[in-house]
Amino acid sequence: MMKSLFRGIRVHETLTNVVIPSFDSKLLNPVIFTSTKAKTDEYMDALLSDIIIGSSSPPLVYPPHYFNICTSHQVCREFNLFDGAVISNNPTLVAVTEMINEVKESIGRIVHHSKFHVLSLGTGLGEEAEYEARGYKWGIMDYYNLSHVFDEDYTSLNSLISDTANDRMVELYTHLLLDKSNFLRIQVDTLSSSEANFANGTKTNLLHLGETAQELLNQNLTSFDPSTCRFISVPNGGTTREALLK
């Protein structure tokens, strides 16, 4: 499907500059494809379809995506790519870092990240279950969700530790690093566990997520609150739609 959609388009042909992180499962190294690198390094000028398939293949769900790139001198390099979240679950910081490096190479000095205007679009967070340490019997069944295998809205301890905590920390790091006046984060953190499950690609769920996004446009603008790690309404901030149009 991806190959038919992108029809042989390579990284250097994108209309805007792109930064796409991935992880090579054979070399055990991160691989970050960018428009700038693609213009000077033939190995980085891969097909967009290959990069997208590889960078959206999470371990334990999909196998790594294999492809190779041969230069004009017929020297080839192979790639075995996993989801970029293996090394960086914060694409905003990856993009800002790459931009700092590109500007430095262009003008010969470092420009502070506060000079950048950043729009970050989230994919939605679920309302996760809470665990109170007092009086709770923690066990292996809860950790792997084995005792609630048929309950779609149940959050296992494994998910709580590996996914939820990581997502909240990503939001916190970005909030602390970037200037609020130059950073707009569009995110919703009230999805159910089933809705937020990346493996739930049913037509019903996708349509519902689209409706949620449309509703979000007309709701009050929200901002991440580091004290609660939740998104709260911005006083006099207008709607999300108005913020995007500024």
Care to give the gist of this entry?
The protein has 246 residues and is an alpha+beta fold.
Q: What key phrases describe this protein's structure?
A:
246 residues, two-stranded parallel ribbon, PNPLA_dom, Acyl_Trfase/lysoPLipase, globular, monoacylglycerol lipase activity, lipid degradation, alpha+beta, EC 3.1.1.-, 8 strands, 4-stranded antiparallel sheet
Q: Report the sheet-strand fraction.
A: 15-25%
How widely separated are the two ends?
35 Å
Structural class: alpha+beta
Strand order of the largest sheet: 2-1-4-3
Large-scale geometry: globular
Please state the oligomeric state of the protein chains shown.
single chain
- State the order of secondary-structure elements, H for helix, E for strand: HEEHHEEHEHHEHHEEH
Q: Could you report the average pLDDT, rounded to the nearest whole number?
A: 80
GO molecular function, one term: phospholipase activity
Keywords: Hydrolase, Lipid degradation, Lipid metabolism
Protein name: Patatin
Family: Belongs to the patatin family.
Descriptive overview:
One of its GO terms (biological process) is lipid catabolic process. InterPro entries: Acyl_Trfase/lysoPLipase (IPR016035), PNPLA_dom (IPR002641). A motif (DGA/G) lies at residues 83-85. Residues 1-96 form the PNPLA domain. GO terms for molecular function: monoacylglycerol lipase activity; phospholipase activity. A hairpin with a 4-residue loop joins strand 1 and strand 2. The longest helix is centred in the C-terminal third of the chain and has 21 residues, at 157-177. The chain contains 9 helices and 8 strands. The protein has a 4-stranded antiparallel β-sheet. The protein has helices spanning 2-6, 35-40, 48-55, 91-107, 140-143, 157-177, 193-196, 203-217, 240-245; strands spanning 19-24, 29-34, 65-70, 76-83, 118-121, 183-186, 222-225, 230-233. It is globular. By secondary structure, the chain is of the alpha+beta class.
